[in-house]
Every structure is written in structure tokens, then in C-alpha cells.
Amino acid sequence: MKTDIKELIKKQNLVIAGPCSVETNGQLLRTAFELKETGKVDILRAGIWKPRTNPGHFEGIGTKGLAWLLDVKKQTGLPTAVEVATAKHVEDALSFETDVLWIGARTSVNPFSVQEIAEALKGTDTTVLIKNPVNADLKLWIGAIERLQKVGINSIGLIHRGFTSYGSSEYRNEPIWQIPIEMKRLFPDIPLICDPSHICGKRDTLLSVAQKSIDLAYNGLMIESHYDPSIALTDKEQQVSTIELVNLLNSIKWKNSSSNEDNFKLNLEKLRLEIDTIDQKILSLLSDRMKIAKNIGEIKKQNNVTVLQSNRWNDILESTINKAKNLNLNDEFVKSYMEAIHIESIRIQNVVE
Ligand code: PEP
Ligand code: MN
Q: For 198-242, how does the pLDDT look when each residue is reduced to its tens digit (9 = 90+)?
């Protein structure tokens, strides 16, 4: 069973679905049977202990829900996944034969908690998914992987659920795509799963976020679903009904990580060569530009003039952004590109002997 799960989480286009929280045995049974019926769900997720921001709300059904989950697993054949935040959760979840454990975003942020969980997992052969920490800290996410690996847990996956930010946003949790993309670059063998439910916080944007993750070569999706989201005790705005889940999964344009089609390979190769040539030209132009910046630094120093010349910088930025518009380049991109060049140029001028 365990070895199947290890293979399963590596499956391309994996779908994990299920309620935010287990509420009643009936709710769990009905949701799980509907999901099984779709034939599109690989793993049933369900929260047993819920980390709520404020007290006085439903905090999960607790350990008794694990027995219901085990029963549902036996009846539907769906492997189960549960969030754990303490050593006791790990012990309880494993004693009820939960197949996959995941560490939530409010837990992966805390190295003490991750360490406690890792120690409870030591000597087991469990598959563990690690959600990104609530704050946009790549190193904490990496640290959680390392803590698990150190105790011998090798079946690991990552879940991107977005990052908290202050103020209003179209997202419940900002996706900040560059962080999971960097994790994929650093850990190419660890499956990366997108949780659009907690990124979006509402149903109407789930498809576009899910699609984006598939376009970015994620391995799968975790989507919260409930047989009737309108009566859900937690995260009711973002959960989808079974039919909505099916529509969502059918609307996604699933991608392959590669293709063996000859024409595709040939065209891709040709275009990549063009990109490589352009990158080479950009690099050598950048090098020329920095040499000039160094000369400018020297004459500023000789004449006792400040390195930063705000008016000149403002003019360059404005005129570059204007020119970029005519070249169909995105304003924000050109702005951050110019800022990066300017920062490096200032650094070079400051190190002039
Ligand atoms: C959840 O998956 O229901 C959950 C609590 O998620 P997160 O840790 O991403 O907030
Ligand atoms: Mn939730």
C-alpha cells in the first residue's frame, strides 16, 4: 500500500480533492462517494484538526473523524490525506492508517513544530506533503524538507497554497509564483502540487490559477470540495461541489511535460538557439554598459559628485518605459529590469577605487 502511495504522489496531473474539514460522518461519506464516482480523484483530502485564525469557530472534529476516514477509505478505495500539526496528530493519523500526511502553512512556518512532526515520523515510511509557509520565505520551506529528510522521510511533495499579505488583494493568499518555481528548480524530483483553493479563497478564480499552475509544469492539484459548499463549516466560499469540481477539471487544458513529436522538437530547438544567441548578445551589451558605468563612477569621484543622480535616473526610467511600450514590452517588467541594472550600476560606481 505504502509503495503505491509513493508512486501515486509522483503521478503527473495528480488530483487531491475533498472537504476542507470533516464535519460529520454523513458529510464525509457523501462527499467521498461523489468524488470517487467522478473517476477523476486520486486522493481524498480532509481536515481533522483545523488551524483557525480566531477562536470560537469550528476547530475540526478531532480524532474521532479519523475512524470515519478509515471507513470511507475502505468503502471507496480512495487513499486519504490529513493535515498534521503536532506529534500527537501524526501518531493518531498513522494509527488510523492515513495514507498521506500534510503539514499546513501555519505549521511549516514554525521550525519547532516541523521538527516535532519529523521526530514523530522517524522510522515510519510515510508520504508527507509540505505546504508553503504562510510568509514568503523560501528557506523555511526548504528547511522543512531538510528536517523530514534528516529523519529518513523520502516520499515528499510540496503544496503551493500562496502567501499572506496585508491589505486587500484579489487573492486570499498571494501566489508569488517565483517562489514555487524556484523550489521546482532546486528540487526537480519533488512533486509540486498547486492548492488553488487557498490561493483564491473564492470559486470564480480557481480555474485560472489551476490552469496557470499546470502551464508552469506543476505535477497536480489539491482542491477543496464538499457535496454542498453552502453548508460547509469552514472555507465555504472556496469549496466546490462535485459537479463544479468535474467542470473545473474538464476545463483545464492539461499539459505534457514534453513531446516526442518531431516537428515540435525541431521548432523548439530552433527557437531555443535563437534565444541563446539573444541572451549572449544581452550579456555582452550588459557587460559593455557596466564598463561605461565604471568610467562614469571614476569621473564622478574625481569631481566629487554623488553617485546617485536622481534626475538622470528618472529620465532614463521614463524614457525606457515609453520606448518599451512601442516594443510591446510590459511596463512592470521593464521597470524591474531597469531597476536591477541601476542597482548594479550604482554598486559598481561605489566600488571605484
Ligand atoms: C487546509 O488545507 O484546509 C488548510 C488549513 O490549509 P493551509 O495550511 O494552506 O491554510
Ligand atoms: Mn481549508
A: 999 999 999 999 999 999 999 999 999 999 999 999 999 999 999
User: Which parts of the chain have pLDDT scores under 50?
Assistant: 1-2
Probe residue for ligand 1, chosen from 43, 193, 198 as the CB with the greatest number of ligand atoms within 8 Å: 198
Ligand 1 atom closest to residue 50's alpha carbon, by position in its atom list = 5
- List, in order of start, the domains of the chain with CATH numbers: 5-251 (3.20.20.70), 262-350 (1.20.59.10)
Spell out the residues 6+ positions from residue 281 whose beta carbon is closer than 8 angstroms to its own. Answer: none
- Among protein residues, the one with the nearest Cα to ligand 1's atom 4 is 104
* Ligand 1 atom index nearest CA of 51: 5
248-to-72, 210, 224, 251 alpha-carbon distances in Å: 24, 9, 12, 5
Residue closest by Cα to atom 1 of ligand 1: 20
138-150 vs 178-186: helix axis angle to the nearest 10? 30
Report pLDDT for 194. 98
Q: Which residue puts its alpha carbon closest to atom 6 of ligand 1?
A: 104
CA distance 318 to 310: 12
Q: For ligand 1, what atom is nearest to the CA of residue 106?
A: 8
Per DSSP (E only), the strands in the chain are 14-18, 43-45, 80-84, 100-103, 127-131, 155-160, 192-194, 220-224
Report pLDDT digits (tens) over 246-276: 999 999 999 988 899 999 999 999 999 999 9
Residues having CB within 6 Å of any atom of ligand 1: 20, 47, 51, 83, 104-106, 131, 161, 198
Q: How far apart are CA 248 and CA 26, in angstroms?
A: 25
Which tens digit of pLDDT belongs to each residue from 230-251? 999 999 999 999 999 999 999 9
Type of residue found at 134: V
Residue 257 has a pLDDT of 83
Nearest to 210 by CA among 201, 199, 128, 176: 199
pLDDT value for 2: 47
Determine the atom of ligand 1 nearest the C-alpha atom of 104. Answer: 8
Which ligand sits closest to the CA of 103?
Answer: 1
